[in-house]
Design brief:
This protein is an alpha+beta fold. It has 17 helices and 14 strands.
Length: 587
């Protein structure tokens, strides 16, 4: 009789389920893509903003050159003030979407779109601003808002700016003087224009009846131009008072704190901006004035300011006001009730801290705080920019095609994961660039396009590192699912180190360079960050899920994970117990 001992085969342990974070990670990045894309369409900016070299226009690079012994003047405050003044000038040309911004610590980049006279733009941003103190002869709200004004009063009581006052720092602030009527305003303007004429002009007028008639005609023309002046129109503001000598009366526009535009007739300049030695915004704790602006004049400026304030203090409003005029625009028009003879003055008028600092900067640095020299001027036509963009896109398409061909030939089925990851990265890059245009004024220039092309290789390199780690695990005899989980920690470290080096290089390049090269650095840094996001939230979770599919798990010959093609070792198995002796199997 023989006893047959049966051997029961143990089931192999079940493979671990995919990590619970795989599906949520995929859902998270897909939701982010949908939200960003929706935001792009909602904003109306569906294409990236193009730089001057692609859209056409003029780019001017200016370098700050301090005077000898004043190297410390090249600082952030002065550079920001220069940018603000240059912005005023460029906007005065009627330019839309112009950009004036600092680059580095010594340079200012002015990008002006096509359609603008480049020579006029260069002159506007490269010359020193002119700041003058001019007496106000007449002022009123301009445009449609003037019809709502209760009185054609010269002082325009609806304006908050008319309530600003200049006082000696040693004397208390005074209240506004009564307004002149419309009739008295006309007489006062005519008399003031005659009184403010230069001595030489007055002498000529007295000696020659024809000269007197000519002066009367000029006065009548100025009054007629003032009546027709509409400061609510941008084109009118850009030309008001332009080309007028500082010794002549002029027209000007200014905006009050309520956002209304006012028009002015201003007398000849009495004090120059260079006569202001120092101006600063302070919070006056001794009175209820709040934020005020204090001015200190040079010795020559103190005398001139004392003379003009002494004359203004004897006048009725608005002839007791003086206008602070920067590049033809009135930035403040305080009134005076007494002569200010101490060489200093204080302007108060319910300022906010920002308004006080802005006015102080204008008074201190109205004539640009620094001298600038042109480093480069680049003019690009729209046709040339279009050709460059087309060439950049063709180069990018060729580079992407070569990467895809390599992935398909070498990784076969795995290339589907890589191509899907590249598409996600491309979508994120495009949408973010489109949104950065209106938010931070990012403009896609040709070097930035080059940075995006280089990023294709960086992104593909991350996939290759991960895939090769997986294939190494399979060569060691492991099945796909444990191979994916074992390969990820080592691949993750390599990817992070590689991307950190790339991002560090981009950051250093962005900081130390100026102009268009920064576009390359910015794009390279952005795409490097997106590479980390895509690999962690899309590539790895997608690989984890697909590892459970038969096509990849069983190592199909076209999966890219065929153990035979990879030269895998025999599968790793547990050591089996030795077989029982033959005699124990029979009885």
């Amino acid at each position: 009789m023989s006893l047959l001992l049966s051997h029961t085969k143990k089931n192999s342990p079940a493979a671990p389920p995919p990590p619970p974070g795989a599906a949520p990670s995929l859902a998270l990045i897909l939701i982010a893509i949908a939200a960003l894309t929706g935001g792009m369409f909602a904003s109306g900016h569906t294409t990236p903003r193009l730089g001057i070299d692609l859209a056409g226009g003029t780019s001017i690079t200016l370098e700050a050159v301090p005077e000898k012994g004043q190297e410390s003047a090249v600082n952030k405050t002065n550079m920001d003030t220069a940018v603000d003044i240059m912005n005023r000038r460029v906007n005065g040309l009627g330019v839309s979407e112009a950009e004036v911004q600092t680059q580095g610590t010594r340079n200012i980049i002015v990008n002006i779109p096509k359609g603008t006279n480049s020579e006029e733009a260069r002159k506007a941003v490269g010359t020193t601003a002119k700041l003058y103190f001019r007496p106000v002869l007449a002022t009123e709200i301009s445009g449609a808002a003037a019809a709502a004004s209760p009185s054609p009063s010269a002082s325009s009581s609806a304006s908050d700016k008319a309530s600003d006052k200049a006082t000696s720092s040693a004397s208390p602030s005074s209240s506004a003087t009564p307004s002149a009527t419309a009739t008295s305003q006309g007489r006062a303007v005519t008399d003031a224009l005659k009184d403010d004429a230069s001595p030489s002009a007055s002498a000529s007028a007295s000696a020659s009846p024809s000269a007197s008639a000519s002066a009367d005609a000029a006065t009548s023309k100025l009054e007629a131009d003032y009546a027709a002046l509409d400061c609510t129109k941008k084109t009118v503001r850009a030309t008001a008072g332009k080309g007028v000598k500082s010794t002549d009366a002029t027209l000007a526009c200014g905006q009050n704190s309520q956002g209304q535009w006012q028009k002015y007739i201003l007398g000849p300049a009495q004090v120059d901006g260079t006569d202001v030695k120092k101006a600063q915004a302070i919070y006056n704790t001794q009175t209820a004035a709040g934020w005020t602006v204090t001015m200190d004049f040079t010795s020559a400026g103190a005398k001139k300011f004392a003379d003009v304030t002494g004359q203004l203090a004897q006048q009725q409003s608005p002839q007791n006001q003086f206008a602070i005029v920067l590049d033809g625009e009135v930035v403040s028009d305080p009134y005076v009730k007494q002569a200010l003879t101490g060489g200093n003055a204080e302007i108060s008028g319910n300022f906010t801290q920002e308004e006080a600092k802005s006015l102080a900067n204008v008074l201190s640095f109205g004539a640009l705080p620094l001298n600038f020299k042109e480093q480069s001027v680049t003019t690009v036509t729209a046709a040339l920019g279009g050709d460059q963009l087309h060439a950049g896109l063709v180069a990018g398409a060729i580079g992407l095609a070569l990467v895809v061909i390599y992935l398909v030939l070498y990784y076969r089925g795995l290339s589907l994961i890589a191509i899907a990851s590249l598409m996600v990265s491309a979508i994120l890059t495009y949408v973010i660039m489109a949104l950065l245009g209106p938010t931070i004024h990012f403009a896609l220039n040709l070097p930035a396009v080059c940075g995006a092309i280089v990023a294709i290789g960086i992104t593909a390199d991350s996939f290759i590192v991960f895939f090769e780690r997986i294939r190494d695990e399979i060569r060691e005899g492991r099945s796909l699912r444990p191979a994916v989980e074992r390969a990820w920690p080592r691949a993750r470290r390599t990817i992070l180190v590689s991307d950190f080096v790339s991002f560090l290089a981009a950051a250093v390049l962005f900081i130390v360079t100026v102009g268009k090269v920064q576009g390359f650095a910015f794009t390279l840094g952005l795409t490097t960050l997106l590479d980390v996001v895509v690999v962690f939230l899309f590539t790895k979770p997608l690989m984890t899920i697909l590892a459970r599919r038969k096509f990849f798990a069983e190592g199909h010959s076209w999966s890219g994970l065929d153990p035979k093609r990879l030269g895998a070792k025999p599968p790793l198995r547990r050591t089996r117990r030795p077989s029982a002796p033959a005699e124990t199997k029979e009885a």
